[in-house]
Amino acid sequence: MIVSEPCEDIAAWVGAKIGVTFHPPFTAMAQIEGGRIIAAYVFNVWTEHDVEVSLAADRLSATLMRAVFRYVADRLECRRATFRTRADNLPAQKALDRLGARLEGRQRGYFGDCDALLYGILKEDFPYGLHAEGT
């Protein structure tokens, strides 16, 4: 099941997984299985054309990826999404590669003890978007 509330609880789960604290305003989306969150996104720093997205997951699903695409592209009407991940988080980097995100840069010391890698994905490059609606 895909949920967007309680937004604060979802953001706290993501924050605990990636080592940050989110401050409003933000929205969130999670996939729940067996009564627990297995994957979640926090959307913040919306600038009309772009939204910053934070992701944490034990397991990702195509269902959640489609819901995220619809939210970013259709509801927020953003052309791109920006992601930051820890430079030492190889599973997250692989997941972003699978989503069609491109590595755009490095932010030194962003997480305090670790650099951040900055990824971006354009609406037309998202594999669960326009071309995958029927799948």
Mean pLDDT: 88
Ranges with pLDDT <50 over ≥5 residues? 131-135
Relative strand content: 25-35%
CATH class: Alpha Beta
CATH level-four homologous superfamily name: Gcn5-related N-acetyltransferase (GNAT)
CATH architecture: 3-Layer(aba) Sandwich
> Total strand count, please?
7
What would your notes on this structure say?
With 135 residues, the chain is an alpha+beta fold. It has a single domain, classed as Gcn5-related N-acetyltransferase (GNAT) (Aminopeptidase). 26% of the residues lie in helices and 34% in strands. It contains three helices and seven strands. It has helices at 7-18, 62-75, 90-98; strands at 2-3, 27-33, 36-44, 50-57, 80-86, 102-107, 116-122. A seven-stranded mixed β-sheet has the order 1-2-3-4-5-7-6, with helices on both faces. The longest helix is centred in the middle third of the chain and has 14 residues, at 62-75. It is globular. It starts with a strand and ends in a 13-residue tail after the last strand. The model is unreliable at 131-135 (pLDDT under 50).
